[in-house]
Structures are given as structure tokens and as C-alpha cells.
Amino acid sequence: MQSTLKSKIKEISSQILSWLNHADDDQPPINREGGGQDPFSRLMNRISG
User: Fold this and answer.
1) Rounded CA gap, 39 and 46, in Å?
2) Helix boundaries (H) for 1-49
């Protein structure tokens, strides 16, 4: 029983991580009114790029 529970938890965790990785694929970049990106977006772009 424990082995089945562990495999279910692992499967669900994998699905959640996959969903999170693809959740923002279609989102446009956030730009400030002045034309540049906000500081948080710049930081996240630097980390992910």
C-alpha cells in the first residue's frame, strides 16, 4: 500500500510541476507605461534566460 501511495504522490507532483512549467508559455511580457519592463520582470527574465 505504501508503495502505491508513494507512486501516486510522485505522479501528482510531476503533473503539477509540468503544469507550472507550461502555465506562462502564452503570457505576454509585462511592460510599464514608460516602455520598459518592471523590475520583477527584468529579474525573472535574467534568471530564466
Assistant:
1) 11
2) 2-22, 39-48
What 3-state class would DSSP assign to 23?
coil
CA angle 5, 12, 6 (to 5 degrees): 20
pLDDT tens per residue across span 2-38:
789 999 999 999 998 888 877 766 666 666 666 676 7
Residues 41/29, Cβ–Cβ less than 8 Å: yes
What are the Cα distances from residue 48, in Å, to 43, 44, 45?
A: 9, 6, 5
Q: What is the dihedral of CA 22, 26, 32, 34, to 10 degrees?
A: 140
This prediction has a pTM of 0.43
